[in-house]
Amino acid sequence: MPSRTTPDSAGASVHAQGNPRREHCRTRLPSHLTSWRFPLPSTSHVLQVSTPVRHRGFVRLTTHLLHRMSRLALLLIFAGCAAQPVSRVPRWYGQNSPTYAQDFPSTTSAWTHTVEIDLEAPSPQQAEELRRSGVQLPQVSQRTADPRAHRDFVDLRVTAVGFGLTAGGYLLYCEGLPLPVLVPESHVDLGVTSAEPLNTSIYPKRDSALADLSAWSPEARQPRFAYYRGAEGRLIVPTLFSPATTPRIARTMREVRTDLAQTSERDLKVLLLTLTGTKVLQGIFSRVLRVDSGPELRPLSRHKGLGGQTQASRQPVPRSATPAPEPAPAPAAPAPMPAPPAPSPGLVHALAGNNPTPPVPPGPRLPRDVAARPDVPRALPANRPIGSSPSQNAQVQADIQYLQDIGATNIRVNQQQLKLGDRPRVGINRPDLQFDYSGRRYQVEYDTPSSGRGPSHQSRITSNDPDAEVILLIVP
């Protein structure tokens, strides 16, 4: 349809297309508007209005206020972000990487729990290396960095003390360590009651600590010592164990020596009376027992002379010319039978809970023991020998009699190794004696003083059955 333009009274014009009803809009347009334009594209209608001059100031004021309000809102947002509490977990930096509060087993939040730390003073050599690297360590008091207050100090971690007869030193059983720590006797002086530490530093090794001691100790009036990391860095130990440096350990060491002396003296007396193996002492011992408790022997017709010598009685010589025949000599008394030996003291102590044989850790099993069939062989007679030594065979029989009297079960002699309850078979090695007592399996090995095969037997038995109690006995 053709388009036309209709002028209005104010000079404005309305462009319409084919719709005469739009002509009435001419009377409703505001008089202050300059013009209304209706471009008519093919798909949409856009209305454009020109702003009058008197309203431009109002529009500028409104725009300025909106701009100021937007800046104020942005400032409030930034202030709110800055005022929010820190929700991240605090971090502590260790030697390798950052450490978070969750890494500590005893704390979950640094704000509600106390974290215990141990301070360690470095050695002079370590401090010098850090200074050259540009690291300045803070100064702490000697009381704060005292190694005796450290949780790794050996006097705080020890739980038991033993003495190794074959190792030549003391054995320290410490909390957190699977095996005891050997302290040679050269590192112990139980007579030192007053000593002065060289410093509060903890040296990485014993050699570096002794090097500084040798450089500073000549002018000291009393013994000096230093601290270092021992037991592969798991313990803090002094260079000298004494009542002045480790009072708990030193006191226990004295008790161990006293108990060891008393036990050794008692055991030696028993060995002297029962396990000497000489037939002279066995004969005398058996004769004393017979006189005290055995039946009396028939007295012989003898009497003592003036000199205390025993003389055989003679029949009076008849006065007849025919001489009487000489009396037949009295038969000699039969030789006394040797008494059976007493039970082994080491066996008795082990069953009472004081095994004289120190335990050893299990090692790798031998292939032939691993390949052993688990079926249990039949039990052989308990009176069978364990070797060619008569004294050892007699001692085994005496120990078996003692075990039967106290109620031991599953007794086997010189047979392949079994576990508790005689099942299953765990190796083809043959302990001299094995039995069950009080819910435990005991394995006994008899050796001579010059044999030296006991430790290897103990290691193999323990590898096959770590729960077994091994007893090593020395029988001449």
Question: Would you give an account of this structure?
Answer:
The protein is built from ten helices and 18 strands. Among the domains are: 3-53, no CATH class; 90-117, no CATH class; 147-264, no CATH class; 345-474, no CATH class. The longest helix is centred in the first third of the chain and has 28 residues, at 56-83. The relative contact order is 0.05. It has helices at residues 56-83, 124-132, 154-157, 206-216, 247-274, 279-293, 345-351, 367-370, 390-406, 454-464; strands at residues 3-7, 13-17, 36-37, 48-49, 91-93, 98-100, 158-164, 169-174, 181-184, 196-203, 224-230, 235-238, 302-304, 310-312, 409-413, 433-437, 440-447, 469-474. It has a four-stranded mixed beta sheet, sandwiched between helices. The protein has 476 residues and is α+β, with helices and mostly antiparallel strands. The chain is elongated and about 170 Å long. Mean pLDDT is 75; it is low at 1-29, 31-51, 86-99 and 285-313. Strand 16 and strand 17 (440-447) form a beta hairpin.
Number of strands: 18
| End-to-end distance | 138 Å
Q: How would you write the strand order of the largest sheet?
A: 15-16-17-18
State the low-pLDDT regions, or none: 1-29, 31-51, 86-99, 285-313
How many separate helices?
10
Structural class: alpha+beta
The shape is elongated
For this structure, the quaternary state is single chain
Mean pLDDT metric: 75
Q: What topology does this entry show?
A:
Blueprint (H helix, E strand, L loop, with lengths): L2 E5 L5 E5 L18 E2 L10 E2 L6 H28 L7 E3 L4 E3 L23 H9 L21 H4 E7 L4 E6 L6 E4 L11 E8 L2 H11 L7 E7 L4 E4 L8 H28 L4 H15 L8 E3 L5 E3 L32 H7 L15 H4 L19 H17 L2 E5 L19 E5 L2 E8 L6 H11 L4 E6 L2
Parallel strand pairs: 10-11, 17-18
Antiparallel strand pairs: 1-2, 3-4, 5-6, 7-8, 8-9, 11-12, 13-14, 15-16, 16-17
